[in-house]
Specification:
alpha/beta; 2 domains; six-stranded mixed sheet; 30% helix; binds adenosine-5'-diphosphate; binds magnesium ion
Length: 268
């Protein structure tokens, strides 16, 4: 049995389904990405998978245990989450924010132990923000802030790491950097990673599994080479694309085909 087993899940906000018929199985150490257009239900699904939504039916097993029977505290020991919209209090320093990831392991009122400090030092290094630890998060760039949020999640020291569109506020290079960090966490630390994303080309080299979500249903899932087809992209995104081989990675990538227009002029 995989570390995450989802069967026949449906979820919404109390007025009809947003996602339905969801079956996902993740092996330990897998890196999977949920891909779909705006409004397809990616954020809803990744929240439902952590037991954060009330209006949910179906089965979610994490590490062999029924998610719906676990306390919030127990879930926080298994799944760490990097939300799309940062819930950061900006007066805090990087160190203080990352330390919050340790709270799930502390008794009430207990301070940070030597072991906590050790974990914090490790994760700051892993995402390369050690040099920023005294800075206020308000003064960080978008790329730095995203790395701090990942560090906070890592400080939770869970087998599973979930992220909601980790590249969405970042420009090209920082988006790539985040996926490189995630790849290291997978290959070097054995983390099981599940991320939602709308930028398909960005995830192809990193994801071992792609789950296409369309209007709340899984349209197809599998390895990136099998999943990246013109038909799947047309079906899920309603976009006509060409698929070509990336010269460097030798993996498929998509290129958009602009719709024809008589008025458009090509400028050099
Ligand atoms: P995505 O992340 O793929 O853009 P979402 O999961 O955010 O998609 O949204 C899917 C659908 O669920 C949308 O129709 C959206 O309006 C609806 N939805 C999202 N959040 C809420 C909410 N808190 N309450 C009610 N409906 C919501
Ligand atoms: Mg979303």
């Amino acid at each position: 049995m995989g570390i995450l087993e989802v069967k026949n899940l449906r979820a919404g906000y109390g007025s009809g389904d947003v996602v339905r018929d969801i079956d996902i199985s993740l092996e330990k150490g897998e890196f999977a990405c949920i891909i779909g257009p705006n409004g397809s239900g990616k954020s809803t699904l990744i929240k439902a998978l952590q037991g954060l939504l009330k209006d949910v039916t179906g089965e979610i097993r994490v590490d062999g245990e029924d998610l719906f029977r676990l306390t919030r505290h127990e879930v926080a020991g298994k799944i760490a989450f990097v939300p799309q919209i940062a819930d950061l209090t900006f007066e805090f320093s990087v160190l203080e924010v990352v330390a919050m990831g340790r709270y799930v392991h502390q008794g009430r009122l207990a301070g940070l132990s030597a072991a906590d400090r050790h974990v914090i030092r490790d994760v700051l290094e892993m995402v390369e923000v050690s040099h920023l630890q005294e800075k206020k998060v308000a003064h960080l760039s978008g790329g730095e802030r995203q790395r701090v949020l990942i560090a906070r999640a890592l400080a939770q020291d869970t087998p599973l790491l979930f992220l909601d569109e980790p590249s969405s506020h970042l420009d090209l290079n920082y988006g790539l950097e985040v996926f490189e960090i995630l790849e290291r966490l997978q290959t070097e630390k054995g983390k099981t990673i599940l991320a939602t994303e709308h930028n398909i080309n960005l995830v192809i080299p990193y994801a071992r599994k792609i789950v296409f979500l369309k209007e709340g249903r899984i349209q197809a899932q599998g390895g990136p080479v099998a999943m990246i087809t013109r038909e799947n992209i047309k079906d899920v995104f309603k976009a006509d694309v060409d698929i070509r081989e990336n010269r460097h990675s030798k993996l498929p990538e998509i290129s958009l085909i602009p719709r024809p227009s008589e008025k458009r002029q090509i400028k050099e």
